[in-house]
Write a structure and sequence with these properties.
With 763 residues, the chain is mainly beta. Helices cover 1% and strands 38% of the residues. The protein is built from two helices and 67 strands. The protein has a seven-stranded mixed beta barrel with strand order 1-3-2-7-8-5-4. Strands 29, 32, 33, 35, 36 and 37 form a six-stranded mixed β-sheet that branches. Strands 39, 42, 43, 45, 46 and 47 form a six-stranded mixed β-sheet that branches. A hairpin with a 2-residue loop joins strand 7 and strand 8 (99-105).
């Protein structure tokens, strides 16, 4: 019994709620909502009795009809699905009243049958969903725009006839699907809205019928069957009949070894541009085809048809009629039958673009080309006679290179050339000149006038004259003549003047640099040159080297190179001024100035993103004269120097070298300051007390030595408490009244003596 499913919004659910015929969908089944998108509890309710529409109208909170379905012992057959959401997702199983059913697709039949899916944006399936054996008309007239079959199992499908008949999906890709059991694909995509069909690499070993497979697919643009194997297929009749928009069909490497009929296969494929039959395996036995519908009639954009693999007896009446752009046709494997090939022709007239026609040999009737004028060494042919002993290739004799109009100066020779697609030495040439705009022509007697190249010396060529060549060929007493298009000569007086000179450029390594020149004159030619010393110049081959502007890449070897442009017109020339390219390395870290105590170690650092660079640190007292440093790290990216009074204010920079590139960092200054920042102070104390003298110093490696003197001239190291620290403690006694104290502070190799402090002892 056909029944309807619909979703009912449950506003309150109690533990004892029991709905007759409640169907629970498993595996994230969320029709109309997207997989796993339920944000509140929903149940799928089945209307068991009465008219479904009455049941629907009777429930105010019913918001969505899901499907028509039928049940068997263990299977739920979905017959028609609809949803108001964005996606219909089909599960592999459903549960109804506690029993689990596997889900299968089985569209409704009969006059009032509904399509399997109503209009939605997308239909998808749970991974591994199994299609039935009989998929005939399964997706016929479906209104969805996309059916995602990527997760679907085709392994038991046998019948795909009419499977997508009238469906509105836009694209179908069946690559990798198991279709080895399919036997019938007749009208599989019949009158669908498909724009792209991909069957490449498929094993269709049991398919026998592909007739009208894409018949009436008026939106189809691409059919890709590359490498498809269909060795049992008997017929491709009308396979692409009336596919008006089809642009490309790829059958390269296909196996059609049993195909017996291709009548109307590409009938009226007006847009078809590419048809690839390369390496196709065709039936090697004698095959009889009925020419009821011409195979390629109306393929107006097709330029090549290669049927040399067809070994067939066939009547090819009108097969290639109205293939107006056909350039290459190989039918050398076909044995012609019937009278129409002889009497009415297989190819219509108007095929002026056809240059290669490979014909059958040993045929039993004449091949009438329908008035087509192609030539073999200049002889017009319209018919291939019966019992030809070899395959004939006909090619039209034509001028392949016309003489070109010339603009030149009046101080150089002028050359005109003509070329045909024939190489026979008996071809004759006669150049002609017209001095009245082509109204009359006269022969030229000299200067190669009877060869394919006319060379006019200085003073012979005339400004405004036209030149053409008459080419002729004699064959069996008949002369065939071709006349080239006329070429016009325009002469100028050579004058050259340079208005804008190239400008020197500075660029970082790897950057593009443009040097440009502006010149005045007629028919100017440009040649950029380069030099390392400004004396010896070579022609450049860089981009634009023969134009107004040249583009060079700032590189390891061209820093300091000089560029100039030589501009010529005829024999006159002018040379631009010289522009120099200076290449710099990108400095990622600049050294920074530093102020430290005398005796401290100081590090200056730099960096670049270029590998393989060499470094040399330099120093200067005035920022003008620089000398290479020998300090620690002077040839690395970081140099270490000691601060001393002698280098107070000295400036440092680093020279980075890479090939011819030399780049200097910014300048960093070393500023030194005194070690002692606070001097010891004189002290007055009573006899018997303790007195402390203190010095404050800065630095990284300080040492102290206090000294004393009675007269301020002779000094001795003290051994009093703290004599080797920043503070010394001495006893105030009558014997050292007036004694003077000072401290020698050392910071590494630098030292500083403090000022003198005097001890006064009171009685």
């Amino acid at each position: 019994m056909l029944q309807r499913l619909f979703i009912k919004r449950v506003l309150a659910v109690s533990g004892g709620l029991a709905l007759a015929g409640v169907l629970t969908l498993t595996a994230g089944f969320a029709l109309g909502q997207g997989a796993g998108a339920f944000d509140r509890e929903r149940n799928v309710v089945r209307a068991d009795q009465g008219d479904p529409d009455e049941d629907l109208n009777a429930e105010a909170d019913l918001d969505l009809i899901l499907s028509y379905y039928t049940l068997s012992d263990d299977t739920c057959f979905l017959n028609h699905c609809a949803s108001y959401g964005d996606e219909i997702r089909i599960p592999k199983t459903v549960s109804l009243n506690g029993k689990t059913y596997k889900v299968e697709l089985k569209r409704m039949t009969g006059e009032d049958a509904k399509p399997l899916f109503e209009e939605k944006s997308k239909v998808s399936f749970e991974d591994g969903f199994l299609l039935p054996e009989d998929c005939s008309r399964l997706f016929a007239n479906c209104r969805v725009k996309e059916i995602d079959l990527s997760n679907v199992d085709f392994s038991r499908v046998k019948d795909m006839s009419y499977m997508f008949d009238g469906s509105r999906i836009k694209e179908l890709d069946l690559r990798g699907k198991d279709l080895r059991h399919v036997t019938n694909m007749k009208k599989c995509f019949y009158k669908s809205a498909l724009e792209k069909i991909t069957l490449s690499g498929l094993n269709l070993s049991n398919v026998t019928d592909m007739s009208s497979m894409c018949d009436g697919c008026h939106s189809l643009l691409l059919f890709d069957a590359k490498g498809m194997k269909a060795p049992s297929c008997k017929t491709l009749v009308n396979a692409f009949y009336d596919c008006w928009k089809l642009e490309k069909a790829d059958f390269a490497g296909c196996d059609f070894s049993s195909v017996a009929n291709i009548d109307g296969m590409f009938y009226c494929n007006y847009a078809l541009k590419e048809l690839d039959f390369s390496s196709v395996v065709w039936n090697k036995n004698v095959v009889f085809w009925d020419a009821n519908v011409p195979v390629f009639i109306g393929c107006r954009k097709l330029t090549k048809i290669d049927l040399h693999g067809f070994l067939a007896k066939v009547d090819i009446e009108d097969w290639f009629r109205d293939t107006n752009n056909l350039q290459y046709l190989d039918i050398s494997g076909i044995e012609l039958t019937g009278d129409s090939a002889e009497d009415e022709g297989c190819i219509s007239s108007g095929h002026g673009k056809l240059h290669t026609l490979k014909t059958p040999y040993g045929n039993k009737c004449n091949l009438d080309l329908g008035g087509l004028y192609v030539t073999d060494s200049g002889v017009f042919c319209t018919r291939i006679l019966a019992n030809t002993t070899k395959s004939i290739t006909l090619g039209s004799w034509k001028i392949t290179e016309q003489p070109k109009s010339v603009k030149s100066t009046n101080d150089v020779e002028v050359v005109f050339k003509v070329k045909t697609n024939a190489s026979d030495s008996t071809i004759k040439y006669q150049w002609q000149v017209s001095k009245n705009g082509g109204s009359s022509w006269e022969k030229i007697m000299n200067y190669g006038a009877n060869t394919s190249t006319l060379t006019l010396p200085v003073g012979v060529a005339k400004h405004g004259a036209q030149y053409r060549c008459v080419v002729s060929y004699d064959y069996s007493g008949k002369t065939v003549t071709l006349t080239s298009e006329p070429a016009t000569l325009t002469l100028y007086s050579p004058m050259v003047s340079i208005h804008d000179q190239p400008v020197s450029q500075t660029a970082y390594l790897g950057e593009k640099v443009l040097f440009a020149v502006k010149a005045g004159g007629s028919l100017l030619k440009y040649q950029w040159q380069y030099s390392s010393d400004g004396k010896t110049w070579k022609n450049s081959a860089a981009a634009g080297a023969t134009s107004e502007s040249i583009t060079v890449t700032a590189g390891k070897s061209n820093s300091g190179l000089k560029y100039r442009c030589v501009v010529t017109s005829g024999k006159n020339s002018a040379t631009s001024s010289v522009a120099t390219l200076t290449v710099k390395l990108p400095i990622t870290k600049q050294p920074a100035s530093k102020t430290v105590y005398f005796g401290d170690k100081v590090q200056f650092s730099t960096g670049t993103s270029v590998s393989g660079v060499t470094y040399q640190w330099q120093y200067s007292s005035d920022g003008k004269t620089w000398k290479n440093s020998a300090a620690t790290g002077a040839k690395t990216s970081s140099i270490i120097v000691s601060s001393a009074k002698s280098n107070n204010g000295v400036k440092y920079r680093c020279m980075l070298s890479y090939g011819t590139i030399k780049t200097y960092t910014s300048v960093a200054t070393l500023t030194g300051k005194a070690i002692i920042s606070k001097q010891p102070a004189s002290v007055s104390a009573t006899a018997g007390s303790k007195v402390k003298f203190t010095v404050v110093a800065g630095g990284t490696n300080l040492s102290y030595q206090w000294q004393y003197s009675g007269d301020g001239k002779t000094w001795r190291d003290s051994s009093a408490t703290g004599a080797k620290t920043a503070s010394i403690t001495v006893a105030a006694g009558k014997s050292n009244n007036g004694v003077k104290y000072r401290c020698i502070v050392k910071n590494g190799s630098a030292s500083q003596t403090s000022s003198v402090a005097t001890l006064t002892v009171k009685s």
